[in-house]
Amino acid sequence: MDSRRLLYLSLTIIFLSTSLTQALEDIPGIDPGRGRDRRPGQHPREAPPSPQQTEAKDYYRMQAGRELIIVADPKNPLSVFCYRGEQKMLTTFFKTIELRVDIIGDNFRHYEGRNATEVRQQHSEASWFTFYPWRQRVFRLELYKESCVGIETPSGYKVALRTRWVDFWRVVVLAGAVVLFFAASHLAQNTFFHYTTGISLGVVGSLLIVVYVVARMVPKVSVVDRWFNLYQCQRKDLEMIKKSGAVTLMVGGWGLTVYLLQYLWQNFVSIVKEHQAVAVGYVVVAGLISFAVVYRYGPLTDQRSINLVQWSMQLVALLGVFFSSQYREATLGLVLVMVTYHSVPDKWKAKAQTYWRRRFPPKVRRLTEEEYIQQGNYETRRALEELRTFCHSPKCDAWKTISRLQSPQRFAEFVEGGSHLDDEAILSYESNHLTPLRDEDLLTTDDEDEEEEQQGTT
């Protein structure tokens, strides 16, 4: 119990540190790039854009629902689109702002930054990270802070800012994370969950291994030449980047691996449709091998291993709650509430629940006469069936039971499916309880009352 509380305390400190770091970043300060190109800094709400910035042809201040058509300009191919952000409110907890770029082909590059100065700096540096072959067309912007996206292309395109007040995936992530956090203790000991998780990890993990092996087998220099020829870069840029040790790691290892994973993710549906047999065969083979491995080692039995699995799932759940919304203060508060509630001992929760029920007792609905009869018949049939099942089971000592009965023959008939009442009992019940009474039968005369009193005194 002490180790569990220590773990929750450490998680709380981590999230508090994250929130404090973010709060310190939001403190207004001096933007080093403001005096250079007169672009707004990190806090546009405090400093409105200058006239030079507003009139610039390559700078656009986007608003919700705004659509722009950018005309092709080969002389100035870079355009910067910025969103100023809005005030934090609980009504925008699940809100998402997206910048969508509608362009034909992949002959463009994108740069993301906190302001226009940072975007232009990335463009001037022309980092080798921008030479990846994939192109992103949907950008999620910061909801409460300024964020900018730069698009560099000689072609024309259309840009639109879309608003989703309730992002479906944010709701799913939040609900799933809360359920996972409170169900982690049961899932960590569940055999079915153990097998399904092992098989899923085996299928995904084997795919990652295959992609990495394929990426390692690709020649390094030829890939770099193809990438740079694709984007028509100058030869001196090629020689400069080839000398960088980062290109060797990027092309020969994780760089191409990330590209292949990105390609598979973006074209997952089309790949499965075109190669259904291969996809199904891979999933079946990888699933069977993973099942065999999990079956060989069996579910976890050591309590410490189970605790590690539980804490890992709870940590993932807390991260899911924290990143389910851009309103970090609200998600951090929700995380603290969840951790605090889970750390409270069960006996304290039981006492609080008992006090709440006594203070606010639930309303009890009484049964009607018809419901009472139906429930009585149902419970009687269920109890009789349980008695028959017990009498047929080896646990029942037949001779001992028969020796205690007054009518063993009737009991034997009941066990074999007969009625538990005889004809005499049924007639007696119907005559005493089911015969309707008239109002005259309930009335008595004075002489009858005197006779009853005399009989009572004698």
Provide a brief overview of the structure.
By secondary structure, the chain is of the alpha+beta class. The protein is built from 20 helices and 8 strands.
Provide structural commentary.
The chain is elongated, with a radius of gyration of 37 Å. A four-stranded mixed sheet has the order 1-3-7-5. Strands 2-8-4-6 form a four-stranded antiparallel sheet, with no helix packed on it. With 458 residues, the protein is of the alpha+beta class. It has helices at residues 2-25, 34-37, 51-55, 116-125, 168-187, 191-217, 220-230, 235-242, 245-252, 254-266, 268-274, 276-297, 303-322, 328-343, 346-359, 369-392, 398-403, 408-415, 423-434, 446-457; strands at 59-62, 67-70, 78-83, 96-102, 109-113, 138-140, 147-152, 157-164. Among the domains are: 36-166, Jelly Rolls; 171-339, no CATH class. Helix 5 runs antiparallel to helix 13, helix 6 crosses helix 10 (254-266) and helix 9 (245-252) packs across helix 10 (254-266). The protein contains 20 helices and eight strands. The chain starts with a helix and ends with a helix.
Q: How much of the residues is beta strand, in percent?
A: 5-15%
What helical percentage do the residues reach?
55-70%
Spatial ordering of strands, largest sheet: 1-3-7-5
- Principal-axes geometry comes out as elongated
Keywords: Membrane, Nucleus, Signal, Transmembrane, Transmembrane helix
Protein name: Transmembrane protein 194A
Biased composition (Basic and acidic residues): 33-46
Biased composition (Acidic residues): 442-458
